[in-house]
Amino acid sequence: MPLRKYGRYTIETSREEKVLFPDDDITKGELINYHEQLFDTMAPHLRDRAIVMQRFPDGIDEEGFYHKQVPEHFPDWISTTNVTKRETGDKQALVVCDKKATFAYLADQACITLHSWASRIDRPDYPDRLIFDLDPPGDTFEPVRDAARRLRHLMEALELRSFVQTTGSRGLHLVVPLDASEEFDSVRNFARACADHLAERHPDELTVEQSRQKRGNRLYLDVARNAYAQTAVTPYSVRAIAGAPVATPLDWKELERRDLDARSYTLHNIRQRLAQRTDPWEGMYRYRQGLSRARQRLDRIAEGDEP
Questions:
Q1: Which stretches make up the DNA ligase D polymerase domain (predicted)?
Q2: Would residue 18 be called left, alpha or beta, if left means φ above 0 and alpha means ψ between -120 and 50 degrees?
Q3: Residues 6+ away with beta carbon under 8 Å from 174
Q4: Is the pLDDT score of 123 beyond 70?
Q5: Cβ-count burial of 27 within 10 angstroms (0-12 exposed, 13-18 middle, 19+ buried)?
Q6: Half-sphere exposure of 269 (CA within 13 A, CB side)
Q7: Beta-carbon-side half-sphere exposure of residue 294 (alpha carbons within 13 Å)
Q8: What percent of the chain has pLDDT over 70?
Q9: pLDDT the model gives residue 306
Q10: Taking Cα atoms as reference points, which of 124, 100, 108, 112 lies closest to residue 50?
Q11: Count of CB atoms situated within 10 Å of the CB of 305
Q12: Whose CA is closest to 219, among 260, 174, 156, 159?
């Protein structure tokens, strides 16, 4: 079996020739190479976060699964964190991807997508990012683009800096970095208040209705990821979809590109993009924003005619 060395860690990989993306002939070895090459870019988005692995041992044409608990066969040099399962109080060990060797090892385990917590391992109850999940009601990307613009406009009115990325699947994530001073329930309630406000202002385009049947053609402003133990796709993670699309941070000007959609960037072209420009989310976590004043501003805005 091939050996890959990462400093003092050595991985014995298996079946690197195994095809994980049949339509694109992308092998497990190529996924390992991608994880090696992108680790430095992804590291800030993974640092000190528990992750959930999405694995496809037989390739994406076969059923995959989400893997939370660290398997017993994982090497002991892989960092883990014990999180509490709220429903039972039991502890569960999750992977913390803090070194390149771990990242490569996960790829060798056919972990195609990494989903990360919104909180850090030292304060698991206190998220340091707020997430709006925007998926189109149909096949067109334009409603997602419009919703992201409106959310950004509202965040600006609340004096909150926001960031956007393609999910690599169907839509966009809008992310607000936080100072980790409030628990998940409080953050989710704020996100829901923002979503309620926009849905009231734009009732024909946006909704907070959880029932798919009642949404019609309106875009659902999903804030469910702002809950304890919920995860979101990690920036630059590959999705288990034909074409190997990649969740890709954007700057806001790029959102206006007419050829942009949720799958514009892939395992094949993302490295060229990063060779030509830096990560648009570089330095995002410097913005340690609180929500107290934003709540007050939202109350004032709700009483007026803006935004």
A1: 27-281
A2: beta
A3: 131, 132, 134, 148, 151, 152, 155, 162, 163, 164
A4: yes
A5: middle
A6: 9
A7: 21
A8: 99
A9: 62
A10: 124
A11: 6
A12: 174
Q: Token digits for 293?
A: 């004043």
**DSSP 3-state percent helix, strand, coil across the chain (nearest 5):** 30, 25, 45
pLDDT tens for each residue of 27-85: 999 999 999 999 999 999 999 999 999 999 999 999 999 999 999 999 999 999 999 99
| Cα separations in angstroms, 8 against 1, 4, 23, 77 | 18, 11, 36, 10
For residue 274, which phi and psi values (nearest 5 degrees)?
-75, -20
Question: pLDDT band at residue 217, thresholds of 50, 70 and 90?
Answer: very high
Distance CA 158, CA 296 (A): 9
- Structural domains in the chain, sorted by start: 3-126+231-244+263-279 (3.90.920.10), 127-229+286-303 (3.90.920.10)
Give the model's confidence band at 305: pLDDT under 50 very low, under 70 low, under 90 confident, else very high: low
What CA–CA distance (Å, rounded) separates 117 from 230? Answer: 6
pLDDT value for 139? 85
Helix, coil or strand: residue 158: coil
